[in-house]
């Protein structure tokens, strides 16, 4: 049953039950107008929460942000909001929405996580799922350890009964995080100047001195050094090992130098090339592009795994994985327990365990740089496949025929198109639709699993929430020894698998558990309200 929207000027003193009436109980539209006209006006602005239970202040979110974080912070956020709205809009339109084009709190977290992974390769602390359900925490938690005022503002706005967020409000939250990241970038750059012994106001510094500052910044960023407490001695020790722990260090330094040259070539720079403000602009651009830059290593990692792959399964037999480590690919040395913790181990057939390529590549063990807000990880290639589907569908669900038509024309890095999908994939899609009244929810576990079957090298296998915990190497090491195997243990694993005979490629595992990543808002009418209000 539909509800009539209520003007924002409704008085707070009017019983909330009288503000929503069942459409079936309303004798005519004219009666609705008369009823509303009889209600007293109030000063101020308020709107009815999507659940219809209480009135919520509709103060402008940017104004509130300015109050708790300062006008400079608000101005920084405001510059980014329109851009982020445009980027978020296709996926936002495809999410379940409540009245007033609002998405629920779990959808806000889900949407922003996907935004930052796709744009920057950022796994944001407080947004990333790490194997848990999307409603297990609030998107506001990204600010929990950084600003009590901002955290409180967004927590209140996302709290129970809030009605969710509009596209604009989601963009404000995302831009607020980016503003905090910008502040951290500036703080890290100040530390790099300090550690290089260069004054921030020295606009006469040479290009070599500025490049030294940038290199110190990058060393701290890549190695996760706490820039607030770093000393020259700390930096000297880190700079001595950076080439060993980060094999692409020389290329990264040269790339940053190239980015600086591009920024300096732009006309209209307000300050000299060596000025702190100009170098800040350079580092903002480096931060913006770094995720895409380092993702080249992820693509090389994926290519290495595909050379070991069993058929087109998106899986590497565990003995081949460890055998490659013995031959010099040291990164393929995680223990079975750690691979399982990552969700990268397929042991559905215990006699033939294998490593799931996209789950391994996108796991936190391959995250390189970090800040107090995020780690830079591999960019999930499945995002580039989901985006056009969401753009074309423009709704939370679609018919199997719609999806098949789109996917058969959608290529990936390893799948050519157009193609004809296997009959088994068609049947799986129809089975999902049967469970949901003839339509397939595109933000659910079963559809994500279907995408893994359609693109086994790009789309991760979606584990049921709570069954894996994708911890970083450091986190796992602190809780369990032996996360990386030594040569003798690697050889033992290979020997244990060597007696297995080669088998023909089999259908990928399929599990029937469904899980919707975001809940569907439902408005429940209350019969008899009109009679109570006018009786």
Q: What does this 3D model show about the protein?
A:
The chain has 535 residues and is mainly alpha-helical. Helix content is 49%, strand content 4%. It is built from 20 helices and nine strands. The chain has helices spanning 29-37, 61-69, 71-93, 105-120, 148-157, 167-196, 207-223, 232-245, 249-264, 276-306, 318-326, 336-342, 357-361, 383-393, 400-407, 423-435, 445-454, 473-479, 487-498, 529-534; strands at 46-48, 55-57, 122-124, 315-317, 345-346, 354-356, 374-376, 397-398, 440-441. The strands form four sheets. The protein has a three-stranded antiparallel β-sheet with strand order 4-6-5. Strand 1 and strand 2 form a beta hairpin. Helix 6 crosses helix 10, helix 9 (249-264) packs across helix 10 (276-306) and helix 16 runs antiparallel to helix 17 (445-454). Mean pLDDT is 84; it is low at 1-59, 476-480 and 524-535.
Q: By helix and strand content, what is the structural category?
A: mainly alpha
Count every beta strand, where a strand is a DSSP E run of 2 or more residues: 9
Query: What's the rounded overall pLDDT mean?
Result: 84
Instruction: Please work out how many helical segments DSSP would assign.
Output: 20
Described by strand count, sense and barrel closure, the largest sheet is: 3 strands, antiparallel
Strand order of the largest sheet: 4-6-5
Overall radius of gyration: 27 Å
Q: Poorly predicted ranges (pLDDT <50, ≥5 residues)?
A: 1-59, 476-480, 524-535
Distance linking N and C termini: 22 Å
**H-E order:** HEEHHHEHHHHHHEHHEEHEHEHHEHHHH
Percent strand equals under 5%
Principal-axes shape call: globular
How much helix is in the residues?
Answer: 40-55%
């Amino acid at each position: 049953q539909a509800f009539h929207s209520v003007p924002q000027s409704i008085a707070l003193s009017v019983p909330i039950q009288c503000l929503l009436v069942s459409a079936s109980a309303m004798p005519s539209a004219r009666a609705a107008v008369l009823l509303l006209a009889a209600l007293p006006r109030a000063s101020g602005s308020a709107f009815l929460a999507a659940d219809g239970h209480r009135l919520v202040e509709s103060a402008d979110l940017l104004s509130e942000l300015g109050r708790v974080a300062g006008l400079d912070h608000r101005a920084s956020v405001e510059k980014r909001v329109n851009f982020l709205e445009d980027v978020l809009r296709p996926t936002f339109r495809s999410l379940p929405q409540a009245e007033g084009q609002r998405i629920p709190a779990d959808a806000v977290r889900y949407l922003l996580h996907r935004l930052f992974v796709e744009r920057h390769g950022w796994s944001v602390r407080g947004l990333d799922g790490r194997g848990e359900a999307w409603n297990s925490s609030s998107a506001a938690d990204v600010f929990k350890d950084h600003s009590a005022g901002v955290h409180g503002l967004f927590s209140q706005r996302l709290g129970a009964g809030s009605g969710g967020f509009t596209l604009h409000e989601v963009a404000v939250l995302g831009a607020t995080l980016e503003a905090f990241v910008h502040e951290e970038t500036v703080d890290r750059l100040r530390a790099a100047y300090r550690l290089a012994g260069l004054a921030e106001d020295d606009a006469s510094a040479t290009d070599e001195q500025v490049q030294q500052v940038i290199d110190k910044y990058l060393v701290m960023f890549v190695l996760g050094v706490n820039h607030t407490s770093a000393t020259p001695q700390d930096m000297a020790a880190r700079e001595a090992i950076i080439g060993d722990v980060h094999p692409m260090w020389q290329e990264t330094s040269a790339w940053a130098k190239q980015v600086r040259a591009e920024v300096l070539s732009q006309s209209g720079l307000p300050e000299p090339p060596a000025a702190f403000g100009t170098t800040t602009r350079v580092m903002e651009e480096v931060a913006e592009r770094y995720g895409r830059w380092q993702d080249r290593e992820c693509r090389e990692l994926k290519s290495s795994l595909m050379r070991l792959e069993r058929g087109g399964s998106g899986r590497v037999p565990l003995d081949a994985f460890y055998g490659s480590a013995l031959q010099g690919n040291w990164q393929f040395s995680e223990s079975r327990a750690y691979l399982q913790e990552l969700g990268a181990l397929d042991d559905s057939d215990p006699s033939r365990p294998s490593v799931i390529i996209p789950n391994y590549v996108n796991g936190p063990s391959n995250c390189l740089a970090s800040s107090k807000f995020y780690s830079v990880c591999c960019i999930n290639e499945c995002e580039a496949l989901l985006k056009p589907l969401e753009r074309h569908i423009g709704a939370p669900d679609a018919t199997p025929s719609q999806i098949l038509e789109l996917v058969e024309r959608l290529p990936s890095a390893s799948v050519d198109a157009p193609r004809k999908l296997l009959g088994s994939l068609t049947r799986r899609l129809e089975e999902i639709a049967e469970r949901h009244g003839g339509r397939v929810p595109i933000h659910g576990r079963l559809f994500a699993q279907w995408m893994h079957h359609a693109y086994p090298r790009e789309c991760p296998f979606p584990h049921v929430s709570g069954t894996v915990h994708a911890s970083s190497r450091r986190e796992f090491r602190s809780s369990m020894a032996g996360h990386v195997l030594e040569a003798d243990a690697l050889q033992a694993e290979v020997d244990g698998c060597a007696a297995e005979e080669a088998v023909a490629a089999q259908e990928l595992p399929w599990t029937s558990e469904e899980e919707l990543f975001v809940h569907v808002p439902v408005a429940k009418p209350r019969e008899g309200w009109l009679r109570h209000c006018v009786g």
